């Protein structure tokens, strides 16, 4: 399976790859470098989402895409919560290059209020909650509309997570198998 690198030069997106920084729920970098990859089908659907967002005056900020199996294990070891993370044994859609985590930016490049931050592992992150502002509910609905119109499925517990329908038809990949060089090779040597 080929992965496509999602770069601002080739896709009109902004990257904020959270797992390459300490600005994530673990408090430490998980990836050795900030990069975003998707499988070919997902990259095509992302291009459609970018087009639909632009038609409404929005851009997309990407937090994560392909997540090597080593990173899936590391996140699970830190916080083994199946409501918000796929157990390594089941194979995350991210490890298949079939999922994207993202938000919307307005015309000034500011993130829209979504009611919670990325990776907020609480009920307030779920689609359809009404315990957040009306503006945040509207913004989530706009993102949901753009992504589903572009052909993505959503995960009900995370307003930021979208994935392909039937992602399991793609294999999970390690960093080495994918050739992405996202992980620190010293850290995962056995």
Automatic annotation (TrEMBL):
Cofactor(s) required, per the database record: Zn(2+)
Record's keyword terms, sorted: Cell wall biogenesis/degradation, Dipeptidase, Hydrolase, Metal-binding, Metalloprotease, Protease, Zinc
Cofactor note: Binds 1 zinc ion per subunit.
CDD domains (alphabetical): D-Ala-D-Ala_dipeptidase_Aad (cd14840)
Pfam families for this protein: Peptidase_M15
Active site: 158 (proton donor/acceptor)
Cross-referenced Gene3D superfamilies: 3.30.1380.10
Record site feature (Transition state stabilizer), residues: 67
Catalysed reaction, written as an equation: D-alanyl-D-alanine + H2O = 2 D-alanine
Residues annotated for Zn(2+) binding in this entry: 94, 101, 161
EC number: 3.4.13.22
Top EC group: hydrolase
HAMAP family the UniProt entry points to: A_A_dipeptidase
Role, per record: Catalyzes hydrolysis of the D-alanyl-D-alanine dipeptide.
PANTHER family: D-ALANYL-D-ALANINE DIPEPTIDASE
Entry's family note: Belongs to the peptidase M15D family.
Protein name, UniProt field: D-alanyl-D-alanine dipeptidase
Native species: Sneathiella chinensis
